[in-house]
Predict the structure.
Amino acid sequence: MSKANLLDRRQVVSTLLADRKDALVVAGLGASTYDLAASGDHPRNLYLWGAMGGAVMIGLGLALAQPDLPVVVVTGDGEMLMGMGSLATVGLQKPKNLSILVLDNEAYGETGGQVSHTAAAADLVGVARACGIADSKAISTLGEIADFAKGMQDVRSGPRFANVKIDAADLERVLSNRDGMFVLTRLRGALGHAPI
Ligand SMILES: Cc1ncc(C[n+]2csc(CCOP(=O)(O)OP(=O)(O)O)c2C)c(N)n1
Ligand SMILES: [Mg+2]
């Protein structure tokens, strides 16, 4: 695909979450968290301001704890590369309600746009599939994002993984609440649980 056709990350995330219903959403640190905040704050959003490499493992924990709710992880290629081993655990556990979407700008955008491994040989779709996530694919259109969003509502057909090549533009930061306890307590409250 030519660079001109690459998707805008904010459009991807707002399309993904346009009809999110009860979904729990985990965003990787940095730009994915800004994208999630830009699509609208929500008590079922879990923003990561750190924990690079932890997004899928956190999503997996939520998915196993809440098997009747859709859980979606939206993260960057750099974050996913750091937490690549978590795909092996997802492939082992096969949580049917977990969906993972990687926003792949082939760069560590947050820290200055250093070129990432996905610009060369690293194929995250191939890794996810080889780890046992059979429903793993590359996505390149908003229509496919909308289909992925429909799929993620089916808590009996996952896990699923998709990698979408996105425009590497460095967009204005939309900041979510940075207090981790607040975000976590709010999410627990939305699920009917008392604060920790
Ligand atoms: C353990 C650790 N190493 C490095 C960093 C610095 N860091 C923060 S965001 C980031 C890049 C994230 O890249 P990616 O997930 O691809 O997100 P993008 O900004 O490109 O969307 C890095 C290296 C960090 N926060 N934690
Ligand atoms: Mg990136």
